[in-house]
From TrEMBL:
Organism this protein belongs to: Tessaracoccus bendigoensis DSM 12906
Lineage: Bacteria, Bacillati, Actinomycetota, Actinomycetes, Propionibacteriales
Database matches in SUPFAM superfamilies: S-adenosyl-L-methionine-dependent methyltransferases
GO terms classed as biological process: methylation
InterPro entries per the UniProt record, alphabetical: Methyltranfer_dom, SAM-binding_MTase, SAM-dependent_MTases_sf, WHD_Rv2258c
Sorted UniProt keywords: Methyltransferase, Transferase
Domain (Methyltransferase): residue spans on this chain: 179-292
Entry-linked CDD domains: AdoMet_MTases
Name of this chain's protein: Methyltransferase domain-containing protein
Amino acid sequence: MSTSTQSLTAPTAEAFLERFFSSALATAELMSAYLGDRLGWYADLAAHPASTADQLARRTGTNARYAREWLEMQSAYGILEADTASAPVTFTLPAGPAEVLLNHTSLAYLGALPRMFAASFRHLPELLDAYRHGGGVSWARLGADARESQSALNRPWFDTRLAPALARVADLHRPLGRPGARVLDVGCGGGWSTIALARAYPGATFVGIDPDAESVVMAKANAAALAVTDQTTFVTADGTTAPAHGPFDLAFAFECLHDMSDPVSVLSAIRESLAPGGRLVVMDEAVSYEFDGPANELDRFMYAASLFVCLPDGMSSDTPSAGTGTVLRPSTLTRYADRAGFGEPRVLPIEDFSFFRFYELIPR
């Protein structure tokens, strides 16, 4: 994804019309990909090149007329290749789109991304009410599409890049590699961050905490599948319970702080759970340092995630919410860290790690 800033100021009516229509096409493309993902059409085409609509429908247990319309749309958008010389027409999923849509181990994988927007759009009436009166829609309400999307999108980065990235930071590699080290993973979701670290550091034990019970179920199943249950414990709990599971030599909060209704209380609890010399690493979106109107693609995407998913989740709490949102700027994190008893966050020298920036927080 490009992070260049484009001029979005004062477009003419004709220019905005063209851009807005392109946005409509992109939205339709994204949601058609959701159908291909959830109905198993992409996976089936990857396994059976040159398929007709009837063949695809029969193998996937779906309706042939809808399958044909989807296949033709995918070809019209340039995702599938259509052999119009054959009778009936056959369709093939090329290697490039297949990697992005289906390869869960590839850093290019985005196949689960449409699920996040589908999860939100399913709750548009509730979101409209929240936008008018306050409140929000919780992660639990967003359901399987949202939790599975986030878990699947982060997994290839955690699997292949997380341990090597941390190994290059001596202050993190050293405690992780110490025999008997205890490590906390707050907001662990589907557990892929915890599992990746457990596999890389077999002498350490890890506690993953997440308030979403279904995510914890996923994490336990994933840990069992990769044989790291002896090193990992997953708990359904709020981050404020961290001291009850400590002390920890190191703590992590991967892409979750901006979702929390009371991030300062969670940061304070993590600080209390740390053993002497312990530190916290926060991984969050690598957005611009300040708001300045027209923004790069990353900031624009994060505002979309914030408006439709993360901010409503953080605002859904029964108690007053910090209302952080996905666009967590370094100045905001610095303010939260100071109130929680940490020194000024230090940006770690970890680059080109998806959309993320890593911060080190050390107790004062």
